[in-house]
Amino acid sequence: MDKADNPLRMIGELLEGRARPTIHPERVAPSSVYDLQYRIAVVASAFELHSKPFAVTSRRIQSVRLKLLQFIACRPALTHMLEQWSKAQHDAQLSMDLSQRLRRGFLADQMHDDVVGFLIARGELNHSGQYLAIGHEEHMLHDLHLANVRLGLFAAEREALQTLTAVRITNAMLEGW
Amino acid sequence: MIQLEEIEVRGQSEAGPFKGVIKLSPGLQVVSARNAFGKSLAVKAIPWCLGVEPIFGIQDNDAACFPEAARDQLELPDGSTAKVYSSECSITFLSQDGSRMKLTRPIKGDSKNVLITESAADGEGRTSKLMARRDTMQDEHGGLQRFLFEILKWPRQEVTTFRGSLSQLYLENLVPTFYIDQNEGWTNVQALQISRYGQQQISEIAIEYVLGAIEAINARVLRQGSAQRSTHLRETARELAGRVEKAFLKRGWRAEWSGNGTIEDVVARWSARSLREVLKAEANVDLAATRTRLNQRIEVFRKALTSGPVDAANSSAPAGVSQRVIELKTRRHQMNVELNTLRTQYDQTSELLTSLDHRIQAATDLLRLKTTGVGRLDHVECPTCHRDLDPATFALSVQSEQSVSSHIEALKVDRDLVGRNRQSLEQSLATVRSGVNELDAEFREAERVLQTVTTAVGTIREQVAKSAGDLTAAERDLDRIDEISVEVEELQGAVAKWLDEARKSGNLPISVGDLMGRKEAFVKALRRYLIALGHSAVRNENVSLVHLDEQYVPYLGTRRLRALGSASDQSRLVAAYSLALAAASETVKGFHPGVVILDEPLQQNPDAAHKDLFLAFLSKQLARDAAFQTVIFTWLSDQEIELLRKQGTKVLTPEGHNFLQIQKPDPSVEEASEATAGETPDVAGKVETLPKDQVSESSEE
Fold this sequence. Notes:
Oligomer: heterodimer
Low-confidence stretches of chain A: none
Strand content of chain B: 5-15%
Order of helices and strands of chain A: HHEEHHHHEEHHH
Number of strands of chain B: 19
């Protein structure tokens, strides 16, 4: 058998000392999606654009809704799929053609849960049943969103969130179905 | 060189005819008159009669550069005004051989033409009417500038434009070097230069022309032309390579024919192999061999159809044709599957690319966020116990700037990789798509043959029908190959033409003649005039550092002279530059007219120190003994006039309230005018305002 057709043999030969390893440190750098500041910035914009008035001076949002929204905002390419998913909710025929790629994926976003936990501990958000409401330092998330707008940061994420304001997200979708 | 001898403005108003005349002499002279006297009106007559009004930013034949007194309402000494019915102005030049040339152009009226009155030294003369602006340089019989260039023995000069075509050097390109306008002329050297015609490097060319460096201008034009040709060649090479690649891909051939790189690279690459050779080597397409093979097949089919033996027992024709249809159908199906796979891959790669672009943008924004500090939670404490909270407690991490930067670099590498992958997929798609199209055509052909064969009665007819079908298919293939050959030959012809053009535009022998000597003369004169005019940044100790750069911008050492000294030094620099250019042109026998007009040099900085410096310059030998004529329009006090006259500087002081004055109908004056008609003008240097009874002989120094 030709050597090229036998990758295991080829790797074996390389590991015998003929190969010179090169290190690309940029390849070990984690993605910015796993950065706390990035996630807080996205949560701030999601909360600002999608939360509803609550009580007299407060605002709140369903925690799962926030989870779904920030998940899409971090991946703007999924916006179109969410729109299709939303349209297909009441159309069994249409839902047959719909991609299954999104669905329950966002529910496994553990990092978002950690970020929310961090913001609650920091006092930025309050957990109130299935809702998240702004906490005692009520200006921090608002100011952060305004700063992002002013500096033109995370424009794609904010645009996706803005698009989602016109998309009907049902409870079934929030459960991943 | 010529001398400006007289400026005259005249016309008709409701108060009667009006007129104003200034007579000038050779050398340096100052025309001193109060503000609003009408000096600017007289000065504007010079560019107007030369037909160069575009230097003021106005339309052709628009007399808007003149004050209202010459166009609309004439101010009378008693303060009232009189409507102007018509007006015109004249300037008279005296040449070294004693001949005169008077240019007259209407101000209010039909200003499209200029009347030229020439009179030789012996008294003979002629009159001609020339177009001031229209085809002024192109019309060899009716163009004013064409006439002026010829009479001044100035060569016509072609210059390159930004559009790539050639244009002429016009008089309005030269006038800013010797005519310094009151309003804008003092803002910079050549401030009134016309650059809107699209002529390239016109300021530099104007200076070189005045210095007589025609060879240097020609070299400059050649260089510009060569640079433009190179740009054009690079563009056409890329366009041609695109056409070739498109033609190849249309037929599913993957062969590289790149137009990138320098012109030399492309010439070397395209000269090394022809298109046919590239196709043969890289796409395994030999058009000549295919053609030969098809011809042989056609010959065989034709022979079988016309004279070959037919076996009546052979019934395999329908089966063979049917088998071919099935094979083609299977192949088409496989190719369609491949096409669908490629389309999906292409869509997904595009999606991936978009996603990568987004990731890069997000990471870049995050880096900026970390750099600016917006949204950074440096100190996080528990609102209840007020102890510091570590993000790690929540399994969270804050990435460093270096980490984000590294991530961005990695993403960019990925994006390049994916981008190349998509490009490759795009080519594969084009290849497979063209293969499907060809297969479709072949399949339809085979189906038609099958239909014919199945409807034929008897084995002989079946075989004949099959042979006919095969022959038709082969002939169509041959036609297709011929079409392709023609297209390839056309492309090869375009490549050959491009190569020919590229080889011709090689290095040109360019000589700039004695430009350095002429430039050196200019620099020397500039240094002398800067010192004489009292430029505060230029002193005897550092004057040797004054030099001109390639654009003829004056520098002192490494700094632009324009940026040095006080604000009033700006007008000194402009005056020194214009006067030095005239002096240098005289030295090197250039094409300067020999007249420098400085309109209101003192108005730029009317402080006492500035004025004293200028008066000191006027009394210097350098200013007074210049071979060219210098006319300065300004206002000086009586003491200053007296001082200058004592020092030997000519000062002309026109009499009267205004330059333009109403001519009173006086029979004695009319008789005197008739008696003096045809005589030579008054003594040079006299300033005359008509009527003649008001002419002041005392205005002469």
